[in-house]
Design goal:
- The protein has 201 residues and is α/β, with parallel strands linked by helices.
- It has one domain: Dihydrofolate Reductase, subunit A.
- It is built from 4 helices and 11 strands.
- Strands 1, 3, 4, 5, 6, 7, 9, 10 and 11 form a 9-stranded mixed β-sheet that branches.
- Helix 2 links the parallel strand 3 and strand 4.
- The longest helix has 12 residues.
- 30% of the residues are buried.
- It binds NADP nicotinamide-adenine-dinucleotide phosphate (NAP).
- NADP nicotinamide-adenine-dinucleotide phosphate (NAP) binds next to strand 1, strand 2, helix 2, strand 6 and helix 4.
């Protein structure tokens, strides 16, 4: 298992969450997504694989269950290094690059040599426990939430978070379509919350 010490040679990286959340804050059921929204899924893929320069990579951070439940047909993802969080795995699962014992180990892996020069963004892919840890991380700056405007039976939920600290951004945020979308008879809307750094010294 990879274990990283917090060292001096640390390059801070933007840490971003992305999730789709239905009316009761549900995000999953029986290890799967509760809905079938291919265009919303494509929006997710577009964000997590976007880099500003060819050759750069993003670090994707996954909970173990999320990793194993994710359709393997979407792998490998472009521009992606995958870190799976687990306290019980000793080696990375197939197609993953790293296994980390906690979120901070994954963050430090991305922020220190040899990966720091390569990694642009740390994307938090879920599930619930990983989102919860990420929302408390001081580097967490953007939360991309798709509001799925319907009720679904779920057994995993997106954590409550501080909307004073993470302020909702106006429509027109880069690469985020405005207005209500609809697919398969389900309405949804893209939202972005950004950490308010106005009080930071
Ligand atoms: N709607 C969405 O946008 C969205 C996004 C992602 C996932 N999902 C859904 O969410 C569900 C999966 O999420 P889940 O919450 O059940 O499971 P999960 O977070 O993917 O996996 C839980 C496991 O991951 C490891 N883990 C998680 N956080 C950790 C941490 N901070 N440090 C160390 N290890 C950590 C632990 O493994 P060990 O037991 O080995 O320690 C834990 O048992 C699925 O239904 C999936 O479809 C939905």
């Amino acid at each position: 298992m990879l274990e990283m010490e917090i060292g001096d040679n640390v390059q801070k990286k933007p840490l971003c969450l992305i999730a789709a959340v239905c009316n009761n804050r549900g995000i999953g059921k029986d290890g799967k997504m509760p809905w079938d929204l291919p265009s919303e899924f494509q929006y997710f893929l577009n964000h997590i694989t976007r880099v500003s320069r060819p050759g750069n990579m993003n670090m994707m951070v996954w909970g173990k269950r999320c990793w194993f439940c994710h359709p393997q047909s979407t792998l490998p993802l472009a521009n992606a290094l995958h870190a799976v969080l687990s306290t019980t795995l000793d080696t990375p699962p197939d197609h993953a690059h790293f296994v980390c014992k906690d979120l901070e180990s994954a963050v430090q892996l991305a922020a220190q040599p040899p990966l720091a020069g390569l990694i642009e963004t740390i994307w938090i892919i879920g599930g619930a426990q990983v989102y919860e840890a990420a929302l408390k991380h001081p580097w967490c700056e953007l939360v991309y939430l798709t509001e799925v405007m319907a009720d679904f039976d779920c057994d995993v939920f997106f954590p409550e978070f501080d909307k004073e600290l993470f302020k909702e951004q106006e429509e027109g945020f880069p690469n985020v379509p405005s207005g209500i979308q609809e697919e398969n008879g389900i309405k949804y809307k893209f939202h972005v919350y950004k950490r308010d750094t106005s009080d930071a010294v």
